[in-house]
């Protein structure tokens, strides 16, 4: 199996590249945001638990997010692996992901791909997206810059975790979409053959 952790700040093209990787390698993207929305909307036990924290203004504990991910992994059959988007965000979550993959599937993370894009380009892309989509969080430059700062603060420790395992690769996320997709695919192929 191929299991990819995909990093990229808001506006880096992560969603676009995920779709390409899904098709190329027959993978299923698992987005933390999608998992939360599903569990909250369908009022699952995990959704109720997450809501109990959110309603108090607290962060949802790692264990709840990890349990959602574990449940999600069991739903999808017939794929040759997964793309983890938005998870892990902490070293503890990265360790949990390793444990889940090992215990439940006798697998491991193949590679952590990180799309790198200059902050000014990200801000420009998101402001443009905000005009097209009407998303409030993409319309305010101050909020956008805070989201980018928060992204780097959260993911730096996880990047170090995968660097220590020789599984972390940065890809320039600026340029032609097909060329970036080709770079990502080449890195996946390299790690599969090792």
Shape, per Cα inertia axes = globular
CATH H level, superfamily name: P-loop containing nucleotide triphosphate hydrolases
CATH architecture: 3-Layer(aba) Sandwich
Total strand segments: 5
User: What percent strand?
Assistant: 5-15%
Describe, in plain words, how this protein is organized in 3D.
The protein is an alpha/beta fold and 194 residues long. It has a single domain, classed as P-loop containing nucleotide triphosphate hydrolases (Rossmann fold, 3-Layer(aba) Sandwich). The protein contains 8 helices and 5 strands, in the order βαβαααβαβααβα. The protein has a 5-stranded parallel sheet with strand order 2-3-1-4-5, sandwiched between helices. Helix 2 crosses helix 4 and helix 6 packs across helix 7. The radius of gyration is 17 Å and the shape is globular. 29% of the residues are buried.
Strand and helix layout:
Blueprint: E1 2-7, H1 14-25, E2 28-31, H2 32-41, H3 45-54, H4 62-75, E3 81-85, H5 91-105, E4 111-116, H6 119-133, H7 141-164, E5 168-172, H8 177-193
Parallel strand pairs: 1-3, 1-4, 2-3, 4-5
Helix pairs in contact: 1-8, 2-3, 2-4, 4-5, 6-7
Main attributes?
194 residues, alpha/beta, Rossmann fold, five-stranded parallel sheet, 8 helices, 5 strands, 13% strand
What's a quick, concise take on this entry?
This protein is an alpha/beta fold.
